[in-house]
Amino acid sequence: LANIDAPDTAAYLRKLLQKTDTDARKETVRALSAIRNDLSLKLLLETAKNDADKTVKILALRAYLDGLTSQKDLPLDTLAAAYAEALDAAVRDEEKTAALDALQSIAPKSRQARIILRDRKIPLTKK
Description:
Radius of gyration: 15 Å
Number of strands: 0
Structural class: mainly alpha
Largest sheet: none
Distance between the termini: 42 Å
Shape: globular
């Protein structure tokens, strides 16, 4: 569905992610996680930040982090900013660690990753 290049697609998917039925939102997140395009990543991050249900937030953030790993053509500084957003949205140590590990792994080649880590007083490399 998110592969359809239509103006209404994002609005429709947002509507699905705002349903009161938690299971429906989880299924929408699962579907978005399989698509891995710009729209799906944007919606997954929004859900990870804003959903009322902790399980949906975690599921969306894990899907977002997985989706970022498939973004091979993304500039490293853009990727660093995306991982920083994931770090901010994380509610559990597991996702925080995944985002930090990703930031630290690209820090040698990304000025933005080094700035993000420095500003948060996090070492550039794992100990």
